């Protein structure tokens, strides 16, 4: 019969998992509405139907940590290249697309972010039904092809198609299923495991810009981009052999719209939408801001590496803190800090100040990004729904990534400089922080929550 599993953090999972006693390795999941328990028990006795048990979370072991490694590789190859877009924007403004405005070029990165997030709307449910490998294998190849095609681009529409749409979509369809599988192996340590897996993203955001900045002057943009593509191919090959599906599958509706009836889940999605609306601004515009304030071009190019270095530390620290004080609490504090730091950015004009800002904002934003998907996963009432919960929520949040930086770019003017764009970003992040606070208390009803 259906069993309630209460964990130490106050949440409950209800599921009905049937184990075939004649073949103990055959595990299927029935997510239909439970019938009357006493009647169900009588039917099982009369028909010989086995009793139901809850899924067990290994919380470690070689197989589980290999999954984390595989997800880390996909994070590096997907989010890492997306986090490096600031380098591309600066280069495009000075070379291929010098006749375009920064807002125009920002659309390339925004479309890339949007397609990456929105692709999870399909990736989540497909992963829940068929496992991650049906997506990871083909779209790993497509991701590498997209990077190679980008190396051949010279026109605006070509960058939109190859880097914005094809590369962004491939990144989302590779990373999302890999991350979802972690939820099948961890429960108590889920936030920490997902946060550790996501550290590949900022590390990629450090390595890719360093490769591009050092190789473009000597071998040109095309071959520098191809070197990045070969690195991605190597990492995705490791992911393909490291990821191990759990065998847990879900039936039923493709999209779980009923999830939005949960006020906590809906508030989480709304909060992350507002935060992401302003969060990417430094990732896109910090180098250009530095150049406008007399920073050397060489140092400005490394601001993206610094912000990703801070993000790397923030993700590790955020994951560890989430295990002790709860992921809801960590995300809430980080959202407020991100808004405060963005407002502080208004008063920073020195090179030293921008370096410190890049590291601090990277750390705070890294904690938010690392724990955003575990936060969505935590509201799922069964592990087999995690992919869909993450997919449909990040699809909505993806629209913030689509419009946020172009709005900021449009607000950057010769008369007012960056002030209006920064104020918009900081205000959006503050609204998101308030919403996540409400979500926290809706979920906890005043108690300490995970």
Explain this structure.
Helix content is 73%, strand content 4%. By secondary structure, the protein is mostly helical. The protein folds into two domains: 3-53, no CATH class; 62-398 and 405-444, Growth Hormone, Chain: A (Up-down Bundle), CATH 1.20.1250. Strands 1, 2, 3 and 4 form a four-stranded antiparallel β-sheet that branches. Strand 2 (12-19) and strand 3 (27-30) form a beta hairpin. Helix 3 runs antiparallel to helix 4, helix 5 (120-130) packs parallel to helix 7 and helix 8 (190-198) runs antiparallel to helix 12. It is globular and about 55 Å long. InterPro entries: MFS, MFS_dom, MFS_trans_sf, Proton-linked_MCT.
State Rg. 22 Å
Low-confidence stretches: 1-54
Domain count, please report it. Answer: 2
Mean pLDDT: 82
Task: Give the number of helices.
Answer: 16
Keywords:
450 residues; mainly alpha; Growth Hormone, Chain: A; 2 domains; 16 helices
Short description:
The protein has 450 residues and is mostly helical.
Topology:
Layout: E1 3-6, E2 12-19, E3 27-30, H1 37-47, E4 52-53, H2 62-82, H3 85-94, H4 102-118, H5 120-130, H6 133-150, H7 156-185, H8 190-198, H9 200-242, H10 263-279, H11 281-292, H12 297-325, H13 327-345, H14 351-378, H15 386-411, H16 419-444
Antiparallel strand pairs: 1-2, 2-3, 2-4
Helix pairs in contact: 2-7, 2-8, 2-9, 3-4, 3-11, 4-7, 4-15, 5-7, 5-15, 6-7, 6-9, 7-8, 7-15, 8-12, 8-14, 9-12, 10-14, 10-15, 10-16, 11-12, 12-13, 12-14, 13-14, 13-16, 14-15, 15-16
Protein name: MFS general substrate transporter
Subcellular location: Membrane
GO molecular function, one term: transmembrane transporter activity
